[in-house]
Amino acid sequence: MRPLSRLVLTVVTFSLIGGMATPAMSHGLPSVDPEAETPALFDDEAGHNANGDDPAIWLHPSQSGKSVVITTAKEGGLFVHDLDGRQLQHFPAPAAPGPDDEPGRFNNVDVTYGFGGRDLAVVSDRGRDILRIYAISGGRLTDVTDPAAPFVFNATQQEVNDAQTAYGLAAWKDSTGTYALVSRRHKTSVGLVKLLPGPGGTVGYQPVRTLDLPASFTLPNGQTWTPCTEPGELAQVEGMVVDQERDILYAAQEDVGIWRMRADLTGTPVLMDKVREYGVPGSYDPETEECSPGADPGYGGRHLSADAEGLTIYYREDGKGYLMASSQGDSTFAVYRREGSNAHLRQFRIGQDDGIDGVENSDGSAVLNVPMGDFDEGLFVAHDGANTPAVPDRENTNFKFTGWGDIAEELDLDVDTDGWNPRD
């Protein structure tokens, strides 16, 4: 693998922007009903260790009702669903290359359009530290990963086995090519890789550069704060999305907040909002494998409860729109202005309705403003980390589908089906 050129962000002071509103608790917030859900996934041997994580929406070029939702399930692989949540395809994660190596573990997925005339789903395989790439045609996926695709962050299989691997992912396309932004598990790194055509119709990639976000922060009282993690780990990034019209990357550092930066990873990132737990000291207990928090000094944000997770953007025709973030700690979603300083606007939940349970502990989400089937004002898809009905001793996850029109009506937001869409 060609060595990455590295950009290390050493300045730990930053700009904080956005409004200072009353803390948003999960109780009493607007609740929006889901309309469909995918089948249950079970993270055990009987369920093939399937644990839902992240969705992406692929828009059909001529029949939007035939669009599909693509979801990751870690060791369970990749699933493709229709707009009613029914499973259409399944791709198992790759087996371990050797008896002492890690198996494939699909973490995040995003879709990009028009790469050499094909649409692609790009997946971060955190077990193998590679990207897996699937061509999409008519809603059907085909694996086109170049067998010679390099590790994203590591040089050897042993380094991969140490679990500092490809984690979060967002696709980005500009005039110079098609890229993926990839975060590194247990590190603060975000890497940029460029997709490249490979032999026989395959698709590979080439690392371009990485940027390291801060691991420690200077608080207003002059003290240095480092988020509490397991020994040897740093505050990692997972949820990411690129504003495709502005070439801006938003990255959720789970225990810190949401960063805004240039998608090419040049320039200086800005911390646009913080989690409520920002600045709270903690000590790691190896017996419980948990962090015990100390006294809150009051430097945290008002809208996100750690972890800050899935990010997605709703585009409007006027260049405005909404950035949405999963506040995993209180099972809510924060809505920010897409433009300007990303001021916070609203907070909401996905509740339960007509036999479909609500969304809890959400990792990933995706929104699209284009009418699709029964979702005639757009679609919002969210991972549900606690699907019900619960099954004793089985971790149960899936994905919920909610109409954007219902969200907009409940939160007094706009519906704009003429805004930018990925096929523009």
From TrEMBL:
Q: Name one Pfam family in it.
A: Phytase
Q: Where is the BPP domain?
A: 22-411
InterPro entries in the record, alphabetically?
6-blade_b-propeller_TolB-like, B-propeller_Phytase
The signal peptide annotation in the UniProt record is 1-26
Native source species: Nonomuraea roseola
Per UniProt, which keywords does this protein have? Answer: Signal
Question: Transmembrane stretches, by residue range?
Answer: none
Q: What is this protein called?
A: Phytase
This protein's record includes keyword Manganese: no
